[in-house]
Amino acid sequence: MKKHIPNAITCLNLFSGCLALYFAFQGNLVYTAYLVGIAAVFDFLDGMLARVLKAYCEIGKQLDSLADMVSFGVVPGTVMFILFQRSGVPLFGISAELLPFSGFLITVFSALRLAKFNIDTRQTTSFIGLPTPACTIFVASLPLILEHGSLLHYEVILNPLVLLVLTFLLSYLLVAELPLFALKFSNLSWQDNSLRFIFLGLAVILLALLKFTAIPLVIVLYVLLSVIKKTSHSS
After folding, report:
1. Half-sphere exposure of 42 toward its Cβ, with a 13 Å CA cutoff?
2. What's the confidence (pLDDT) of residue 135?
3. What confidence tens digit (pLDDT) does each residue in 198-215 have?
4. Residue 29 half-sphere exposure, CB side, CA atoms within 13 Å?
5. Which are the contacts of 39, defined by CB distance < 8 A and separation ≥ 6?
6. Other CB atoms closer than 10 Å to residue 97's CB: what's the count?
7. pLDDT(224) > 70
8. What is this structure's pTM?
9. Quick one: DSSP state of residue 101?
10. Which domains, ranges and CATH numbers included, belong to the chain?
11. DSSP string spanning 47-78?
C-alpha cells in the first residue's frame, strides 16, 4: 500500500497543474499562481515520501516527469503567453499577435530539462540546470506582483522586452550545465547544510519584507548562492 502513496501525491501535483491551466485559460493568473504553489508542495512531498517510505519505482519516476511537464512546463509557458498578450506591444518588428508565442519556449526547454534529468546520473543529490518548479514559481509570481504591486511593477513586468529577456534567460537556465544545490536534508547539521540554512533564512527575510515581489528574488538568490558555492569549490 505504502508504495502507492508517493504516486498518489504526484497525481495531486498533476491535478493542481490542470486546474492552474484552467484558470489561466479563464484569464485568472492569480489563481493559477496559487495552484502552482500547491503543485510545488505536492512535488516536494512525493519525493520526500518516496525516500522516507523507501517506495521507489520506475513508474513513479516517469509519472513524476509527466506531471511536472504539465504543472511546470505547460503552465509557465501559458502564463508567459498571456503576459505577452496583456502587454499588447510589438517588439523588434514582431507583431503583438505573434510575440506571445515565444513564451512557449519555456515549455519546450522544460521538456528538454525533464528529459535530461531522467537520464542524468549526476542529479541524484543536486541539480544541473534550473529545476522546472523553480522556473515556474518565478513565472507564476509575476501575476501576483502585478495584482498586489505598484504601477511601476506593472510597467516593468508587462514590458515586452523584459518578458522576452526573461523567457530566453529562463529557457537557457533550464538546460544550462550549471550545478545547483537541492533542498534535500540527510541530516540537520550546520556543517552539511550551511548553504541550505543560509538560503532558507535569507528567503524568509526577503518574503517578510517584500512579500510577493520577493519570490523572483528568492529564485535569483538560489542561483547566485549555487554559483558562489561552485566558484568557492573551484578555487
Report:
1. 24
2. 97
3. 999 999 999 999 999 999
4. 24
5. 13, 14, 16, 17, 20, 71, 72, 75, 133
6. 10
7. yes
8. 0.93
9. G
10. 2-234 (1.20.120.1760)
11. HHHHHHHT---HHHHHHHHHHHHIIIIIHHHH
Nearest CA among 127, 119, 129 for reference residue 62: 119
All three cell numbers of 87, joined, read 502587454
C-alpha cell belonging to residue 73: 512546463
Measured from the Cβ of residue 208, the count of other Cβ atoms closer than 10 Å reads 9
The strand pair at 126-128 and 179-181 is best described as: antiparallel
Supply 193's cell numbers: 547544510
- The least confident of 108-112, 132-136, 177-181, 187-191 is 187-191
User: Residue 39: enclosing H or E segment and its boundaries?
Assistant: helix 29-53
Could you report the per-residue pLDDT of 157-180, keeping only the tens digit for each?
A: 999 999 999 999 999 999 999 999
